[in-house]
Amino acid sequence: MRLAAIDIGSNAVRLIVKEIKGKQGSLKVSKVAHTRVPIRLGEDVFETGEISVEKERRLGNALQGFSLLMEAMQVRAFRACATSAMREASNGKAIAGRLADLTGVEVDLIDGKTEADLIFSNFEVSLFDRERDYVYIDVGGGSTELTLIRQGSRVEGRSFKIGAVRLLKDKVDAGVWPEVTQWCSQLIAEWGLNAPIAIGAGGNINRLFKLGGCLSGEVLPFERLASLVEVLSRCSYEERMTRFQLKPDRADVVVPAGRIYLDTMKMVGAEGILVPKVGLADGIILSLYAQLNRT
């Protein structure tokens, strides 16, 4: 069956369509389509606290387009989720209601815990060493989700209001980084972490992983990631697009995103990071599949 997910993030809005075959435990999942529209809702929300009329219009156009694409691709079911920017916007719920009337797409404004739960559902089909500790780091435009995975199970998780767009706009509250530091210190003390491997999610770490010259399944060492982020930070916006072939909406946020990954990796003592290229949208599709098979 074909299922789809719409991920309304702080930086971009994505539609992912996947074909799922087989039974639970032995699923064959293949990507059919991936469409990304860089609307950057967080640009409004982190500055003014609400989504502008223009950004609402663009989001409505994107959802209408996604709806037509899903119909053409014979998608059986889909779910649309909005994260940090839209859930924090003072007019987020009102906009979700208007968009539902306009496009027929019902948008769920999910909280940080639900977002982390959906992300973790990816690990049901991921091939990681269940005897190792992993710290999952998902850096979005407006928030960062951290999750400790031990023996294949999610044992601790927390969402923080630190994201690439928020950091770029200098809109991270002064008290948030100390909260992250404290949480990571408690994680080490309570669970006895010893050099865990980080697992990265998000478009920025996907790109950094590729620029770092790593192949699928390899670990990108902390030092190589730090060196790459440093090189990018010294380049101008235009140089990042020409020399590293970054898209305009990636070239400005890749450095702040990279620094978030590096800082959180350092806090938990991770010496390297795996990048399986799965995230919220993938988790939405898997949870939707599980829900359909329960009915």
Keywords:
Nucleotidyltransferase, domain 5; 13 helices; six-stranded mixed β-sheet; alpha/beta; 295 residues; 46% helix; 11 strands
List the topology elements.
Elements: E1 2-8, E2 13-21, E3 28-37, H1 42-48, H2 53-72, E4 77-82, H3 84-88, H4 92-103, E5 107-109, H5 112-120, E6 133-139, E7 144-150, E8 153-160, H6 164-168, H7 176-191, E9 197-201, H8 203-211, E10 219-221, H9 222-234, H10 237-243, H11 248-251, H12 254-268, E11 272-274, H13 280-294
Parallel strand pairs: 1-4, 4-5, 6-9, 9-11
Antiparallel strand pairs: 1-2, 2-3, 6-7, 7-8, 10-11
What do you see in this structure?
The longest helix is centred in the first third of the chain and has 20 residues, at 53-72. Helix 5 (112-120) packs across helix 13 (280-294). The protein has helices at 42-48, 53-72, 84-88, 92-103, 112-120, 164-168, 176-191, 203-211, 222-234, 237-243, 248-251, 254-268, 280-294, and strands at residues 2-8, 13-21, 28-37, 77-82, 107-109, 133-139, 144-150, 153-160, 197-201, 219-221, 272-274. With 295 residues, it is of the alpha/beta class.
